Amino acid sequence: METNNSAEMNKIVMLAYDLWVDGEVMDSADRNDPLIYLQGHGNIIPGLEKEIEGMKPGEKKTVIVQPEEGYGVLIEDSLVELDRSLFPEDYDPEIGEMLTLQDENDEIITAFITAFDDQIIEVDLNHPLAGKDLKFDIEVIEVSDATDEDIAAGHIHSGCDVCGGCDGGECH
Fold it and tell me: Rounded to whole angstroms, how far apart are CA atoms 132 and 117?
């Protein structure tokens, strides 16, 4: 892999980071197991992607991402009660579990279970980190050229570890 590149559109970036929220490390990736993504395609939150733009391998910095460029502002009245009959009979919900839902306009919505009983499953349509300032300590480890397949797919496509598999060149 090339090491004299900067993180820019259509480059594969290997990133080590610690994500701090409210003074606690919430997530991290280290040099041995970095985050690998395609720069400029929205594979990571916008505020972080902007801050990484132009960085070179070995560069480090601390970044504060505001909610508007992170996981969004906190939306009041985002709790929704769903009838238990909408779920399979043997479904066993867990508090904090992420659900992918579809609304009446066929829009995909991510929700998180906040409560449940025998009749209702209550979900929050906010991401758990919505409304939070996100502090990232980042280090760009490596930057390399993406393949044409990566660029066409809009994410790292080579080997299909990201998308779950290919069938005749089609990304799933």
Answer: 29
